[in-house]
Amino acid sequence: MTKLDHLEVVIGLEIHVELLTTSKMFCGCSAAIFGAQPNTLVCPVCLGLPGSLPVPNEKAVEYTVKTGLALNSSIANFSQFHRKNYFYPDMAKNYQISQYDLPLCDGGYLGVDINGFTRQVGITRVHLEEDTGKLFHVGKGGRIAQAYYSLVDFNRSGVPLMEVVTEPDLGSPKEARIFLQNLKSILEHLGVSDCNMEQGSLRCDANISVRPRGNKELGVKTEVKNMNSFRSLERALTYEVERHKQILEEGGEVEQETRHFDETKGVTTSLRTKEYAHDYRYFPEPDLVPLKIDSVWIEELKRDLPELPDARKMRFEEVYKLGAQDAGILTSSKIMADFFEECAKSYPKPKIIANWILGELSYRLNQENLQIDESAVTTRHLVELLKLIDDGTVSGKMAKDIFEEVFETGKLPRIIVEEKGLSQITGEKELSTIIELALEENLSAVEDFKKGKQRALGFLIGQVMKLTKGRANPALVNKILQKKLEELK
Fold first, then answer.
1. Which of 53, 166, 279, 325 has its CA at 20 to 30 Å from residue 116's CA atom?
2. What top-level class would CATH report for the domain 428-488?
3. How many angstroms separate the CA atoms of 460 and 236, rounded?
4. Are 152 and 135 within 8 A, CB to CB?
5. Beta bridge partner(s), residue 113
6. pLDDT score for 1
7. pTM value?
8. Are 127 and 98 in contact (CB under 8 A)?
9. Would you say residue 76 has pLDDT above 70?
């Protein structure tokens, strides 16, 4: 045991989720901001102009309550918006409308499975606020410290933003990644956000510290920002764990600060120190009345909750007879689970469907960095291809080649087969002629077979497949070839 083996890692997450509403949090501007020209989806309210008054978005409140219910939180009957006062150029009002001591959702938990053990990660709160604008730093590296000047786009200002804050219950970077993946899956199944991390719909900050194992007092923490993927989250926190331990090993003290994760270099760098807690001078938002949440409405929302990932995973295991691992991967993404179930409606072999989705399709999606609904392969494509294998039109190997073209072009498998003449040769008479040719061209292999060398059979099957350009039915080739070789003995 090294002298630092007694240290344990403590991680808490702050997750910001842009809600999938039509309009912004306190005005009627469109919340569909991705791809819009800068500063075109704005109005006096989201620009903070004098005299403008906010009106809360009921759908955003509903989505936040649904999330709280899914996370086993207590839903408040009385909640209130506050002004969080601070200055930053991306916030026109110099305050953010947020929630302070009276959030919509209090407490709760979400399980994280690690090597068969489930850790219940506590939820501190789920509250609702408005998003800020977005700064673009013009200069080398796109970082504020290297910028010549900055531009601000207020399109994002006022978009409904839900914040999920966890307790410091996570014990490793891997646990943090799995927690965020589980939360993302729940949010997708609820339909409250598209959770697109690259577009900023799901953003995560992490607080990390180390302390002597078993000690209740937290160590000095650092906050890590700019983690825009699950991989980035785990990499950044892994780096921070080693950095903290190295400082302590050398007899130093960890400094409380906010750090930025450099995706390219795989390291964190200091942004600013945090010697004292910020004083945001919270006070109740005078332009908004408190929210009174009706208990009957909460019960209605609870009854209307969709099937969540854990329940769906269990159903996939029971109904489709899938293994726990396959069912878990499929249901970790709502769109992937939906894709699977749509295929299963018209093709009654769920295990084969799962193998293709988790094998060939997932491999190509990862290569192209695409989601399943962004690719040219639809449920119709996959089902048609599997039926072509079943009816003997194509072999499994041919199907993989056809799948590649389906992925690239979006053509239906049957069309590709017809255009390229790829249908499997299944006629015994035609195959017999080809097999006889293969035997005549490979007499030494025939002699090896006669001497009992079974590898010769595999070689001859390969030669037949080569002559037919892979179109011969392998099982039929094996049957005819063995018969002819026995006759030659």
1. 166
2. mainly alpha
3. 54
4. yes
5. 118
6. 39
7. 0.85
8. yes
9. yes
Task: Name the CA radius of gyration of the chain, rounded.
Answer: 30
Phi, psi values for residue 86, rounded to 5°:
-165, 160
Q: What is the dihedral of CA 14, 249, 172, 366, to 10 degrees?
A: 90
Instruction: Tokens 């919509």: give the residue.
Output: 104
How far is residue 131's CA from residue 161's CA, in Å, rounded to a whole number?
5
**Residue 3: strand, helix, or coil:** coil
For tokens 């991967």, the residue is 329
Kindly state the helix (H) or strand (E) to which residue 27 belongs, with its residue range.
Answer: none
List phi, psi (to 5°) of 5.
Answer: -65, -20
- Identity of the residue numbered 254: V
**Rounded Cα gap, residues 72 and 16, in angstroms:** 18
Output phi, psi for 126, to 5 deg. Answer: -130, 115
Residue count of the chain, please give it: 489
Element housing 258 (H / E): strand 257-262
- Residue 208 contacts residue 244 (beta carbons within 8 Å): yes
CA dihedral in degrees (389, 393, 398, 404; nearest 10)? -80
Token pair for residue 146?
């290297």
Least confident of 181-195, 391-405, 433-447: 433-447
Q: Where are the domains of the chain?
A: 7-297, 307-420, 428-488
In one letter, which amino acid is 83? Answer: R
Give the whole-angstrom CA distance, residue 470 versus residue 394.
9
Given a contact cutoff of 8 angstroms between Cβ atoms, the answer to whether 20 and 191 are in contact is yes
